[in-house]
Amino acid sequence: MTAPDISTAESGAAATGAAGGGGLLRITGAHVRFDQTKALDGVDLAVGNGEMVVLLGPSGCGKTTLLRAAAGLQPLDAGRIELDGRDLTGRRPDQRGIGLMFQDEVLFPHYDVEGNVAFGLRMAKVPFAERRRRVAEVLELVGLSGFEGRDVATLSGGEAQRVSLARALAPEPNVLLLDEPFGSLDRLLRERLIDELRPVLDQVGVTAVHVTHDHHEAFALADRIAVMASGRLLRIGTPEEVWTDPRTAEVARFLGHTNVFDFEVPPALARAAGRPSSFVLRADRIEVVATGFDNTGVSGDDPIARLPATVVRRRFRGDRYELRVEADVGGVATTLDAITPHGPAVGAGVQLHIGPSAVLALES
C-alpha cells in the first residue's frame, strides 16, 4: 500500500477542528524484522496535525511495533520517521517530542499523583513552579483536580489511566501514541473512558495514534482507521469509508462483517447480489420481513432479491436483534446474519429483502 497523500492527512485533521497543538507525523517504508518474522513490512503512514488515527488489527499484526518505532523504542531496519518534516530516525525517545501511553498504567508506586504526572517535566528540568502549574492544568483536563497528593495505590483503574494520560500530556508532546490504553479495563469503564478521551485530545489539539484490536473502539475514536495484518497496512480511511468499502475479505472480516463471500459463492446468491464473486452482504442492511408480508421500499432501498429463510438463532442486544438465518438461495441452503429492530422467534419463516446498499463489492 502506498503512503497516504499528505494532503489527505491534513484535510482529515481540519475536519475535526483540531486546535493545532500537534504535528504532522509521517512514517515511510518502515521495516522491522525479528529473526525470520517481518513485524513491519514496508509500512507507510501519514497522520495529520491534530488528527487521531487508530491502528486496528489482531494481536501480533505489528501495531505496537509501529508505535514503539515512532517513539524511538524500537529501531527500524529500514525506513524513515518524520515529524513536521524533521527526521527523527535514530533519535533518542526524549528528543522526539512524542508521548507514549501504555495499556497498563505503569505508575511509579513511590511517587504520589503529582510526582507521577510531573515525571517527564522533571526529566526536562522544567522549573518547580512551572511544573506545579502544568500538573494542576493537566489533572483538571482529565477530571482529577485536587488529586495531586493522592497515593497511586488508592486509585481506581479508571483514575490510574487518567493519571497516565495526564503524565503523557504534561510535557506537551506534539504526538501522543496510545498502546491499547483501555485493554485491561472492564467494558463499562472502557466505554466511559473512550467517551472522555476524544474531547481531552481535541482540547489540546495533539496528534494521536491509538492502537486497538477492538473495532467498536476504533469506530468510536478515529478520524481515520488503519487496518493492519502481518506487518502491513491493508486499508486506511474514515470509519465510514472502511466500513462501506473494506475492499478485501480480510479487512471486511476484521471490521466485523460476517456475510463475506470471497470463494465458492453459490451461483444463485451471486445472481441475487448482482455480483459474480467476492462481495459482502451487510447484515445491518438486510431487511427481515415476516413471511407473506410485502413491505417493499420500507427501508428506502428497493430489493434486488427476496430470499425465503428460517431463523436458526436469535440474540437480543437491547436496541436490536442479531439473527442467524438459513436462506433458500436457488435451492441451496445458505447461512446469513441479519440485524433487525424486531426479533422473529427461532424456527420462524421470514423473507430477506436485499437491496443494492447491502452489497459491498470486494477485490477479487
What key phrases describe this protein's structure?
28% helix, alpha+beta, OB fold (Dihydrolipoamide Acetyltransferase, E2P), 2 domains, 364 residues, disordered N terminus, five-stranded antiparallel β-sheet, elongated
Number of distinct helices: 11
Look at the helices and sheets and give the structural class.
alpha+beta
**What is the count of distinct domains?**
2
Note poorly predicted spans. 1-20, 293-299
CATH superfamily of the largest domain: P-loop containing nucleotide triphosphate hydrolases
User: What fraction strand?
Assistant: 25-35%
| Helix content bin | 25-40%
- CATH class membership of the largest domain: Alpha Beta
Order of helices and strands: HEEEHEEEHHHHEHEHEEHHEHEEEEEEE
> Radius of gyration in whole Å, from Cα?
24 Å
Taking strands numbered 1, 2, ... along the chain, how are they ordered across the largest sheet?
6-7-8-3-9-10
What is the arithmetic mean of pLDDT? 88
Q: What's the number of extended β-strand segments?
A: 18
> Whole-Å distance between the termini?
17 Å
CATH architecture title of the largest domain:
3-Layer(aba) Sandwich
Largest sheet: 6 strands, mixed
